[in-house]
Specification:
single chain; 4 helices; 12 strands; alpha+beta; three-stranded antiparallel β-sheet; 175 residues
Length: 175
């Protein structure tokens, strides 16, 4: 990560990626954050997160902290998400995101067994929002969404970002 933590220009820190598609900050999270242990402090946010090949893979965004300083966890917005927002802002002057109108939860081993799945995967629909696209399409509470337009949904945290990338008004095929 490169940035200017505490006003110290041209600072670089290194670490490892612990997780991708991490949901942070609520159930309606449209950003599948990259979780890393790269030291990010005030002044690093908005700076690039590089891989070992020097390619920008994310934009440093936030930390979990009790003190306001780095405590071992930092999160970056994946570069493809940042590029999508940039393109929409340049093209349309605003960002739009698709939605289907469901509340979801993780499919654990017990649920997978109960639904006859070979392993835990997908997003379990816990509630269908009245009048929303999912209700109109016939999605019911208790359904498990396994893919969107052929893209597998391995973890429930992936579904919001996949759906949000679909333009409002466009159709999508859900399995």
């Amino acid at each position: 990560a490169i940035g200017s933590p505490f006003g110290l220009d041209n600072s670089a820190t290194a670490g490892i990626v612990s997780a991708t598609s991490r949901a942070v900050g609520g159930e309606d999270n449209y950003v599948p954050f990259i979780q890393t242990d790269v030291a990010v402090n005030p002044g690093n946010s908005g700076g690039p997160l590089f891989n070992l090949r020097g390619e920008v893979i994310g934009m440093n965004s936030m930390i979990f902290s009790r003190t306001g300083g780095y405590m071992g966890l930092s999160f970056a917005i994946p570069i493809d998400v940042a590029n999508n927002v940039r393109t929409q802002l340049i093209t349309n002057g605003k960002v739009t995101r698709g939605r289907i109108g469901v509340q979801i939860q993780e499919v654990n081993a017990q649920f997978a067994d109960a639904f006859g799945l070979d392993r835990p995967r997908g997003a379990l629909v816990g509630q269908v929002i009245e009048g929303g696209p999912a209700e109109k399409a016939g999605i019911k509470t208790g359904d498990v969404i396994l893919s969107v337009d052929g893209k597998p949904v391995e973890r429930s945290t992936q579904l919001p970002s996949v759906i949000s990338a679909i333009k409002p008004g466009e159709s999508a095929k859900l399995e």
